[in-house]
Amino acid sequence: MCSTGAARLADTLDALDGAQIAHAGAGPDEASAAGAAVLPRPGGGRVVVLAFAMTNAGTPAAWRATAGHSGVNLLDDWSVASQQRIAAQAHQLRRPGDVMVLSIHWGPNWGYHIDPAQRAFARALVEHAGIDIVHGHSSHHPLGIELHAGKPILYGCGDFINDYEGIGGYDAYRPDLALMAFVGFDRGDSAELRLVPMRRSHFRLAHAREVDMAWLQAMFETQGRALGTRVARSGLHELRLWAA
Questions:
Q1: How far is CA 84 from CA 52, 56, 57, 118, 131, in A?
Q2: Which ranges in 49-206 belong to alpha helices (H)?
Q3: Which of 152, 167, 204, 232 has the CA that lies 20 to 30 A from 125?
């Protein structure tokens, strides 16, 4: 990471610390970048967030945090070794009542294709690393969602607020639509997943219009066929997703 980038990263981390906002996935050195963000969970337990970035999402390899340089917590590939690296850290951190979240910047910016190796990797993290929520991001639009062993795998959440407004050529993906995803584990190990669609315009968010809700519902139904999930309206501004 260049000196300008390092200074901007340090400024960002200082701002987050000053606002008492927990963060993970980047830091002044390798150990800090690999550290988890730990948040209290209402009702007891904690939410533990591990965060990674991958070069296949456009993250330069030079941004890797090292013992002597700031940067991001880079994951090299979807190999068994990478699974074991995450599993070892997750098992070491986990306490009874915790929810383990893996936030990972992976895959291309556009398109609905999910690499089979990516899907196998995500499933293995649920099965062997004890990950409760895979929070994937990089795509500028929402992707299909999977529920594996009752745990949500969000392959691409899309953007919430960004500076991509006005970039043309991708209107078919509806990049103006954003999602709030609410995951609950109150009824046992299987997650309850509620989605609240939003529409972004001029850096502002509002509830999605009825036509937008219908478009998103159709998209999740289409993409969910290969992932084994269904979606339906569950409120004026809400969709509910479950395993088919």
A1: 14, 20, 21, 15, 12
A2: 80-93, 116-128
A3: 232
Using CA atoms, how far apart are residues 120 and 128, in angstroms rounded to an integer?
A: 12
Does the CA dihedral 185-231-243-51 come out positive or negative? negative
What confidence score (pLDDT) does residue 2 get?
66
Contact criterion met (CB below 8 Å) for 208 and 214: no
DSSP state of 47: E
C-alpha–C-alpha distance, residues 174 and 112, integer Å: 12
- The 10s digit of each residue's pLDDT in 171-229 is 999 999 999 999 998 766 788 999 999 999 999 999 999 999 999 999 999 999 999 99
Q: How far apart are CA 216 and CA 179, in angstroms?
A: 10
User: Would you say 158 and 141 are in contact if contact means Cβ atoms under 8 Å apart?
Assistant: yes
The number of C-alpha atoms within 13 Å of 156 and in the hemisphere containing its C-beta is 26
Q: How far apart are CA 28 and CA 36, in angstroms?
A: 14
- What is the distance between the alpha carbons of residues 52 and 108, in angstroms, rounded to a whole number? 15
pLDDT recorded at residue 44: 86
pLDDT in the model for residue 163: 81
Handedness of CA 6, 7, 12, 13 (dihedral sign): positive
Instruction: For residues 47 and 145, give the distance between their C-alpha atoms in angstroms, rounded to a whole number.
Output: 21
Q: What are phi and psi of 89, to 5 degrees?
A: -70, -40
State both tokens at 212.
Answer: 């937008």
d(C-alpha 73, C-alpha 32), whole Å: 9
Mean pLDDT of 132-159: 96
Name the token pair of 179. 């999602």
